[in-house]
Design goal:
With 161 residues, the chain is mainly α. It is elongated, with a radius of gyration of 22 Å.
Length: 161
């Protein structure tokens, strides 16, 4: 059972680790293709947040955000493989931040063709992200529900005389 669980964690974490490895290889000096594709989506997301909440997101360098995403996925995936809850929390944090930024169908009018195309992508990829999110929550719940092994004190044997 322990070996099967380990293989499951390796396969699950491979999604995140391979994605982080690809982004790391493309990173370059400017953040790579991830930073280029993230820039317009992040601008739209920050505009959406500021109009609906009145809160202005602080300015930050996009290269740092991409590096942080790579770190969250890479370190979180590796820690998840060894069975650490911290790895699952790091992957949850990445999913919670990245999903609403990457799939921004909510910024388009429902009457336009763009909305349906984005909504279809959203349902395909966000449902996948939602499943990953659920699996991580399940792992954390199972990890917390298993009681820690307590050292059993050996009862002293009575001496027969």
């Amino acid at each position: 059972m322990a070996f099967t669980s380990f293989i499951g964690r390796v396969l699950f974490a491979s999604i995140f680790i391979l994605s982080a490895w690809q982004e790391f290889n493309e990173f370059g000096t400017d953040g790579g293709s991830a930073a280029k594709s993230l820039k317009p989506k992040l601008d739209v997301f920050s505009g959406h947040v500021s109009t609906h909440t009145g809160f202005q997101l602080p300015p930050f360098e996009l290269k740092v955000a991409v590096a942080a995403a790579i770190a969250l996925k890479g370190v979180g995936g590796l820690l998840f493989i060894i069975g650490s809850s911290l790895g699952a929390y790091l992957l949850l944090l990445h999913q919670a931040i990245a999903t609403p930024i990457l799939y921004d169908f909510y910024n388009h009018d429902a009457d336009k063709k763009e909305f349906y195309q984005l909504f279809i992508k959203f349902t395909q990829f966000d449902l996948q992200n939602l499943a990953l999110f659920g699996a991580l929550l399940f792992f954390i719940g199972m990890k917390n529900s298993i009681p820690r092994r307590q050292l059993k004190k050996k009862s002293p044997k009575s001496k027969t005389t």
